[in-house]
Amino acid sequence: MEDCIFCKIIKKEIPSDIVYEDEEIIAFKDIHPLAPIHILVVPKRHISSLAEMTEEDEKIIGKIYTKINKIADMQGVKEKGYRVIVNCGKDGGQEVMHLHFHLLAGTKLGQKIV
Ligand code: AMP
Ligand code: ZN
After folding, report:
1. 24, 47, 64, 113: least buried by Cβ within 10 Å?
2. Which residue, 31, 39, 23, is CA-closest to 5?
3. Residue 57 pLDDT more than 90?
């Protein structure tokens, strides 16, 4: 089966603006930013959505939150604050079927989440 778009980004087959990378995680700027800072934090292992995660994935998902804090610090927003969003499935608004965490920051975000 053909790789999904984020797997292609992970394999550097398509370009992205990478802000953090290690052996398990990649973080790059969202191509259509909804805030001054809008970064997608993605496990390199293809997990299609949050609904598909298993106990095996608990470690990597915990690590992702630690790295989100590190990236927020690198971006200079750790003190001011930020928002982390995971869209899951059709009604959750998920468009790319490879688990990813939206890190939004750089402005006072709206109070509503829907
Ligand atoms: P979601 O709706 O939660 O699946 O979010 C998918 C996100 O991926 C959207 O915010 C898109 O703007 C973003 N996106 C899609 N293609 C790319 C790409 N090639 N590089 C960076 N971000 C992308
Ligand atoms: Zn993928």
Report:
1. 113
2. 31
3. yes
